[in-house]
Amino acid sequence: MKMAVLLSGSGRTLDNFHERIASGAMQGSIEVVLSNVPDALGLTKAKKYGYPAFHAKDDEAINTILQEYGIELVLLAGYLKLYQPPPHLRRAVLNIHPSLIPSFCGAGMYGMRVHRAVKARGVKVTGCTVHFANEVYDEGPIVVQHCVPVEDSDTPDDIAARVFAAECEAYPQAINTVVARGIDSFWP
C-alpha cells in the first residue's frame, strides 16, 4: 500500500515507521512526507531516509502532491491541523491519538495537553488509539488501542514517555491490520 506521512514536528513517528518498514515489521511503503511547518525536523529526517519531502501550507497543496504519488493511505503522525483529504482518500486517513478515545480527545486535546489532563483527572489507565480520521477530531472508526498504566507518582512527562512507547507498537500494528483487512472493512 502506498502511504504518505503528514507531520508538523520532529518526526519521531516517522523514525518508527522507517525502522519498522526496514526490518519487515510494517507493511506498505512511504512514498512521500509532507509538513505544514516549513522547517519541521521531520522533513529533514524524511530527506535523510530518502523519502521525497515537501512543505505544503494547506490541504490543497497537500492533496496536489498526494495525487502525484498515487497515495492509497495517509498517515497523520503528529499533524496538528484538521486535514481534509480529496474525495477518493476520504476514508483512507489514519491518525494516532495519545489517549484511549473517547477519553481526553477532541479539538485542542493533543500532545502534553492530553497527558496533563490524564494526570489531573487521576485515571489509572491511559494509552493510545489509532483510528481513521474524519471531519471531526478523534471520531472516526477505531483500528487499535493500547493501554498503559498510570502510577500515582507519574508526572505528565512519565505518562507521555509510556504512551509514546505504546504508540510505537500500536501504529504499525494498525497499519498492518488495515493492509490485511482493507480500508473499507472499518467503515459502516
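The above is record 1. Record 2 follows with the same two-line structure.
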Amino acid sequence: MINTLKHQYLAIIWAVLVLILCDIPMKGSGRIPVFEGFDKLVHLGFFFVLTVLLFYGKIRQQLSYTYRIITILKILLITTLLGGGIEILQLTVFTYRSAEWWDFFCDMTGVGMGIFGYIFLHRFRFNEKLV
C-alpha cells in the first residue's frame, strides 16, 4: 500500500488540487471573457491529466509499460468516484457551485481520452496486440 502511494504522489496531489478547484467559490467568474462551455473543457482536462498521472504512477511502480485490464478498471473506478464525489459535494455541501451531469460526463470523457491514449500509445510504441 505504501509502495503504491509512493509512486502515485503526483496523481494524489493533482486529485486534491482538482477537488479544491472544483469546490471553491469562483468570485467574479462572470467577468472572465471565456467561451460558453469553458467549464466543461476544464473538467475534461483535469480528469485527462489525472488519468495520465495514474498510469504514470503505475508504470513507475512496476518498472515496466505492461498493463492489465484490472489496472484500467481500477483507474476507471477511482476517477469515477472522484468525479461523482465532486458533483455530489457541489450538490449538497458547496451549494454555491452547480452540480451538473454534463460536468460528470466531461470528467468521464477526459478519463476515456486518457485510457484510450495510453492503450493506443502503448500498442503503437511496443507493437503489442491488445488482449
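The radius of gyration is 16 Å.
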